[in-house]
Amino acid sequence: MKKTCDEILDLFDELIPFQYHQEDRKSGYYLGKDRRGNLFRIPMMTLSIGVVTNQFQEFSHPAQASELCAEMKTYAKTLPGSVYVVDRRQVEPIEAPAEAPSQL
Q1: Residue 52 contacts residue 68 (beta carbons within 8 Å)
Q2: What whole-number distance in Å separates Cα of residue 82 and Cα of residue 74?
Q3: Which terminal residue of the chain has fewer beta carbons within 10 Å of its beta carbon, N or C?
């Protein structure tokens, strides 16, 4: 997984600058306009990857994995540059409640 993510990020970071004009590549940003016509800096595009596996927890429904993927991607986007983050949190298994003693 690490090798794959590293290769994806390296290739992305190598190729994405060619999507911009040379002067924008040099400055590291390009200028955009908001709805009112005001200019503002837009940084070069980066890639954020959130990784979730079933190594530390089990999923009973695909939506659980999807929700964690979105959470990890959101976290990755808070970090600078192109990055990947891996969810390593361990979830305690849920034990069935003890049966109440039967009453006669």
Answers
A1: yes
A2: 13
A3: C
Tokens of 11: 């290739």
For the range 69-78, what are the long-range contacts, defined as Cβ-Cβ under 8 Å and sequence gap of 24 or more?
Answer: 73/48, 73/49, 74/50, 75/50, 76/48, 76/49, 76/50, 77/48
Q: Among candidates 74, 19, 15, which has minimal Cα distance to 49?
A: 74
Query: For the whole model, what pTM was predicted?
Result: 0.73
Lowest mean pLDDT among 12-16, 36-40, 53-57, 82-86: 53-57
Q: How far apart are the first and last CA of the chain?
A: 57
